[in-house]
Amino acid sequence: MEVQFFPYRDFYLHDKKEYSRVLNEVLSRGAYILQKDCHEFEENSKKFLDCHDFITVANGTDALILLLRAAGIGQEDEVIMPAHTYIATAASVFYVGAKIVLADIGYDKLIDPNSIEELITDKTKCIMPVHVNGRICNMDKIIKLAEKYNLVIIEDAAQAYGAKYKGKSAGTFGIGGGISFYPAKVLGCFGDGGGIVTNHESISKSVRFLRDHGRSDNGKVESWGLNSRLDNIQAAVLNYKFTKFPETLKRRIEIANMYYEGLKDCDGITYIPVFREDKDNFDIYQNFEICCKERNLLKDFLNKKNIKTIIQWAGMPVHKSNLSGINPDSKLPLTDKFFEECILLPLHPLLSNEQVNYVIEMILGFYSNN
């Protein structure tokens, strides 16, 4: 049996007729930039996330850059974030001229509030929690820190569109959050795409201004901005996918629960995420990431069984990236240990139960023989 990690082509072929209709409709109107499809998707997202505004942008990295600029974060300012994230998080801080400060993770494999507090200085201006794999960080503690030290919160919610914590959507806890609609995301388009969630009118106005070359409503350029507009074709694709989003989430959660039930008693696995759907949490399972012994051997074994897995971000936490602006001497023991053991299992709505059970069977078989 073959189990692809994410079959990009199949997502189009599975619903080719409808996607062809959507694309033809947009192209026939010649509607390419900031047209009705884009506005409709913003309205759909605003209602779904229960936020003041949702602004589409070209990609998730731009979303963070625009939020940092709107918040006035720049030279000499320090931004605290986890090293357990994609390099794009750090890149957004680098490109506004601020200093990247890296925190360790906690038991939940997300940024540790205790590690954050240890790193705060008189130059710290922002905390940037990252909601990895569709699971929201402990925002209660992070908000208390932000209030105690008068800091801004900007959320990297690239992997958390639709995730909730105590009834609030990812991106609504601070001044705003950045979303990615990269094709492999829970809600993904057929190219790059991003969005900004905010409950702050001033941030909304600033971001809408900055994303379009700094132009005001009358077309006059009043400030340096970016060309960061979600093209209308991608917005139309997202609008169509949005109609199926509840069933997409439902299927992801079903698969995650199958993995958990099938692997929870496996001696070789040191960490496995438990699905949380209670008054405090709603996880969307962008990915299903486990930690396990002999990770590299397991990955090779599964590959031979035609099961494709990924070590997220090429197995490289941000502090190991060797890039300017990154402190390679950051002491982050829990992050380092995590990246020695972590692996992503296939999880997408097109997986069959038979495929999921095959993955579970092969993992159990590997550890029973080792």
Model description:
With 370 residues, the chain is an alpha/beta fold. It has 13 helices and 13 strands. The strands form 3 sheets. A 7-stranded mixed sheet has the order 1-9-8-5-4-2-3, with helices on both faces. Strands 7-6-11 form a 3-stranded antiparallel sheet, with no helix packed on it. A 3-stranded antiparallel sheet has the order 10-12-13. The longest helix is centred in the last third of the chain and has 19 residues.
Q: Which CATH architecture of the largest domain is right?
A: 3-Layer(aba) Sandwich
Question: Which of globular, elongated, flat, extended, rod-shaped describes the shape?
Answer: globular
Radius of gyration: 21 Å
Level of helix content? 25-40%
Domain count: the total is: 2
Kindly report the name of the CATH homologous superfamily of the largest domain.
Answer: Type I PLP-dependent aspartate aminotransferase-like (Major domain)
CATH top level of the largest domain is: Alpha Beta
Number of helices: 13
Distance between the termini: 23 Å
Calculate the mean pLDDT score and round it: 95
The CATH topology of the largest domain turns out to be Aspartate Aminotransferase, domain 2
Count of strand segments: 13
One letter per element, helices H and strands E, the order comes to: HHHEHEHEHEHEEEEEHHHEEEHHEH
- Strand content of the residues, in percent? 5-15%
Protein structure class = alpha/beta
**Largest β sheet strand count, sense and barrel closure:** 7 strands, mixed
Strand line-up of the largest beta sheet: 1-9-8-5-4-2-3
Low-pLDDT residue intervals, each spanning 5 or more residues: none
> What is the multimeric organization of the chains shown?
single chain
